[in-house]
Write a structure and sequence with these properties.
Protein name: Metallo-beta-lactamase domain-containing protein
Radius of gyration: 16 Å
Organism: Pontibacillus chungwhensis BH030062
Number of helices: 6
CATH superfamily: Ribonuclease Z/Hydroxyacylglutathione hydrolase-like
Cofactor: Zn(2+)
CATH architecture: 4-Layer Sandwich
Keywords: Hydrolase, Metal-binding, Zinc
Order of helices and strands: EEEHEHHEHEEEEEEEHEEH
CATH topology: Metallo-beta-lactamase, Chain A
Strand content: 25-35%
InterPro entries: MBL_Glyoxalase_II, Metallo-B-lactamas, RibonucZ/Hydroxyglut_hydro
CATH class: Alpha Beta
Helix content: 10-25%
Number of domains: 1
Shape: globular
Distance between the termini: 30 Å
């Protein structure tokens, strides 16, 4: 399993390409859809789905462009199924950099918490609200990594001052759903560099 991190847009939002034998999952295509598409086609990878850790504007800005180009389905948690088309919920209404306001069509599917299979990919969806009410993390236990979105960062945690955010809920999600993973599990966050569960247990000042 290969994990490629691609920071996109003015906030450097991490899009991830999870690739296995030339098939791929795209996670959080936040911006610069043409750049993302060119990279995927240059590597001759075939995406089969787009997964959203959550539906904030900086994670969905290129969603329709990428989904339409590859003709693939989109998955989001049910708590944020309405956020894709509403700038007042996805946050683009409140940021000058989000011009024009960012919207996307409805997702094709809603996540079910627990083990999931898409094509040849098997992983676990963990519900990790707090940064937003529909935030999820994708755990790949056989490869010892988790895509954590804007829940847990290297030395930090997600902000909770946007619609639906709650600090206590976020800390509980991290404690119960992420820090319970093995210490050597790599954490791929929504912004910034990767870290490990063990490192954040010891070094993260918010925990």
């Amino acid at each position: 399993m290969n994990v490629e991190q691609l920071p996109l847009g003015p906030l450097g939002t991490n899009c991830y390409i999870i690739e296995h034998e030339k098939k791929a999952l795209i996670i959080d295509p936040g911006s610069e859809g043409d750049k993302l598409i060119r990279m995927i086609e240059r590597r001759e990878i075939s995406p089969i789905a787009i997964l959203l850790t959550h539906a904030h504007f900086d994670h969905i800005g290129a969603l329709d462009e990428v989904r339409d180009h590859f003709d693939i389905p989109v998955y989001v948690h049910k708590e944020e199924k309405d956020w894709l088309g509403k700038p007042e919920l996805n946050g683009s209404k409140f940021f000058q950099m989000a011009t024009p306001l960012i919207t996307a069509r409805e997702a094709d599917h809603e996540f079910e918490i627990g083990e999931m299979e898409i094509g040849e990919f098997t992983f676990e969806i963990r519900y990790t609200p707090g940064h937003s009410p529909g935030s999820v993390s994708f755990v790949f236990p056989n490869d010892s990594f988790v895509i954590a979105g804007d829940t847990l960062f290297q030395g930090g945690i997600g902000r909770t001052d946007l619609p639906g955010g709650d600090l206590d809920t976020l800390k509980q999600s991290i404690e119960e759903q992420l820090l319970t993973l093995d210490d050597d599990t790599t954490v791929y966050p929504g912004h910034g560099g990767a870290t490990t569960v063990g490192e954040e247990k010891v070094m993260n000042p918010f925990l």
